[in-house]
Design a protein that fits this description.
Keywords: Membrane, Transmembrane, Transmembrane helix. The chain is 79% helix and 0% strand. By secondary structure, the protein is mainly α.
Length: 138
């Protein structure tokens, strides 16, 4: 079942879903009460760390590395959502760095267009979260 998700003909669908999800998430920050922004951001940040872990399990490669990175960033995002917003921002930006490392070939192989696109979106989203946290309005 997992292998079907990663077939080459699904690449465009995965990219479009990821883009739509991220845009909707970013827009949702303006629709939820301020105290909920970090919970939404933390939960989304945590959830986005599952895709590479799922790929590692599907291929049976780099399980320790992928799981270790994912668990670390999930804990950081989840704890940060309730205790310290900068931890959520760190988790998003660290995920961008992990995307770039994956783009360079570290860990389980993944679509290169996806890793670069995800890094770009994570950097933009992390920047927007930082601006929100710092009280900077655009």
């Amino acid at each position: 079942m997992i292998a079907l998700f990663y077939r080459p003909w699904r690449q465009k669908e995965i990219g479009l879903i990821a883009l739509a999800w991220t845009l909707l998430l970013t827009l949702s920050h303006g629709l939820v009460p301020p105290e909920s922004v970090w919970i939404v951001a933390g939960l989304f940040s945590a959830s986005m760390n599952l895709i590479y872990t799922r790929q590692a399990f599907a291929k049976g490669q780099d399980l320790r590395l992928e799981t270790g990175i994912a668990v670390t960033l999930i804990l950081c995002a989840t704890i940060g959502a309730f205790l310290s917003p900068p931890m959520v921002i760190f988790s998003v930006l660290a995920h961008a760095a992990w995307d770039l490392a994956k783009h360079a070939g570290v860990g389980v192989a993944f679509f290169r267009w996806y890793t670069l696109g995800c890094a770009t979106i994570d950097l933009i989203w992390g920047g927007l979260l930082w601006a929100y946290w710092a009280g900077i309005t655009i």
